[in-house]
Amino acid sequence: MNKLLKSILPVLLVLSVGACAKPTARPVAEPKAQPEAATASAQPHQRQSVRAEKSMISVANPHAARAGRAILRAGGSAIDAAIAAQMVLNLVEPQSSGIGGGGFLMHFNAKNGDLAAYDGRETAPASATPDMFLNTDGQPLAFFDAVVGGLSVGVPGALRMLEAAHKEHGLLPWAKLFEDAIRLAEGGFTVSERLHKLVAGDRYLKRHRTTAAYFYDDTGAPWPVGHILKNPELAATLRQIATGGADAFYQGPIAQAMVDTVSHGIGNPGGLSLADLSAYKTIKREPACLFYRKWLVCGFGPPSSGGLTTLQILGMLQSFDLGSMKPGKDGLPDVRAVHLISEAARLAFADRNAFIADEDFVAVPSAGMLDPGYLERRAAEISTSRSIGRAAPGTPGGKTSQFAPGTSSLGLSTTHMSIVDANGNAVSMTTSIENAFGSRMMVGGFLLNNQLTDFNFRPTVDGRPVANAAAPGKRPRSSMSPTLVFDNQGRVVLAIGSPGGSRIIGYVVKTLIATLDWEMDIQQAIDMPNFTNRNTPTDLEQGTAIETLADKLKALGQEIRTRPMTSGLHGIHIVDGVLFGGADQRREGVALGD
User: CA–CA separation, 144 vs 129, rounded Å?
Assistant: First the structure.
């Protein structure tokens, strides 16, 4: 435990200052009865989690889950399994992640208690400027005008991140971890209903000749469900990386092909260079951790906003007795809990948008944002009977933001995996290419990201700079929230995360509270209808029973919207040494264990 304690020492020091005592949980009165809304679609049959005694992987596609489990069965570590699964995801879930993108990886070493946070976020090329997404009139480009093509492509970070983690925690040879992905790429995999629908519904994939040739037949129709899709170009790329390591990707022919493709990018060329690629480095960050009731919750700090924002929401909610608001037999969350979680999220997102960006470029007041006294003062702004409406940023650490509030990211195409190996080591990893199919440009059988559009398009607002403006070498702010939870003995009890753009934070918070406060089965916690607030109207998951809460929430002053909310939560909950895995059926995920 000594290394884990060392990694969270800044947080422990914060806890020793100010309001250190655990806040007294405030009871919440039942809301006044309101007319019931029309009943939404019935709750699905409540599924149970997958149980295992030794090891487990929960990931977004069955092919990737089987590849990861095979590595675990062969004696591989959680990191080994993550690499094998990610390479397969690159093939079978190309719209979401891959070696052309980046991500964040949390790793817990059960032997020595070390908690490591690997930053594989993309970086802006040296050619990037704060106004790169403004048109000639000084106005922001339309989102997809910026996304599709080379301008949006950041330096991919996933492979360097995975290689760095493997050097420290891998047990099996690097090349072995690519075997399943290479075999599937050469032999082909069956096009799923989800992949078919996403390709059929995309308006931009045909703009790039190589991409169009891969995803459509000779008539221009998307490959049908059940079609065996092969990717020999990706197999060749993966062979080079398996033999030559990540250097084979960041230097040489693959790197040159990426630069050439970006520089001729479908109407909006980008400035990615060979120097940008060869200079990329993974950074090991300090995890962001906070005590939540009897648990220690750890997430990823800047440049991700996921960890700090998730922890701020939880920290404010410690002031309320959420345990008394457990869902009913229908699995529907209590309206009081939805209201309180939404209000805490408003306040946390107000801070997020004003303060959080790449901490190598911007001074982020992380300690102040997680100070228990500050969070208790912010929680005091929450009314149990009335929404506060749009929240203003606070003053963490006594500081007022020098930046104008930015906006939330729009990226939705991301993936998450949670893994625990036979030695108790744990991985929570979220990876992404940002929008579905990224920049829509393929090189060597893989898609290139559009992560630079996670920067704010407006570098200034009302004459004030925006923290998340583009700059050479800067990493765009993310909402990815890979999370690990520990008990009071320093043992991992939960690994969780999700895709979903800036709604990721709400998805993860919902699942943490459902699992920790309400003691729900991890699968049922994942299946619970989603609801989020990003200092905007409160969004309820469309087509689910949570829509029946709309009138009650409106009576509390909440402005309500219903939206499709396709989370991809994948989690493992450890109870008395037994592993319970859950996978989000809103996508294609499965949990497999031994």
Answer: 19
Q: Does any domain span residue 38?
A: no
Residue 345: inside a domain, yes or no? Answer: no
Structure tokens at 425: 């080591």
Q: Kindly state the DSSP code that residue 142 receives in the 8-state scheme.
A: P
Q: Mean pLDDT in the chain? A: 91
Catalytic residue among 237, 261, 310, 414: 414
Residue 43 has pLDDT above 90, yes or no: no
Cis peptide before 303 (omega within 30 of 0): yes
At residue 169, the 3 state secondary structure works out as helix
Q: Is residue 374 part of a domain?
A: no
The answer to whether the CB of 316 falls within 8 A of the CB of 378 is: yes
Indicate the pTM of the whole model: 0.93
Q: How confident is the model at residue 414 (pLDDT cuts 50, 70, 90)?
A: very high
Number of compact structural domains in the chain: 1
Tell whether 95 is covered by a domain.
yes
Identify the CA nearest to 229 among candidates 182, 184, 179.
184
Catalytic residue at 414?
A: yes
Q: Mind listing the pLDDT tens digit for each residue in 540-589?
A: 999 999 999 999 999 999 999 999 999 999 999 999 999 999 999 999 99
Determine contact, residues 375/340, Cβ cutoff 8 Å. no
Which residues constitute the domain of residue 437?
50-282+413-473+564-593
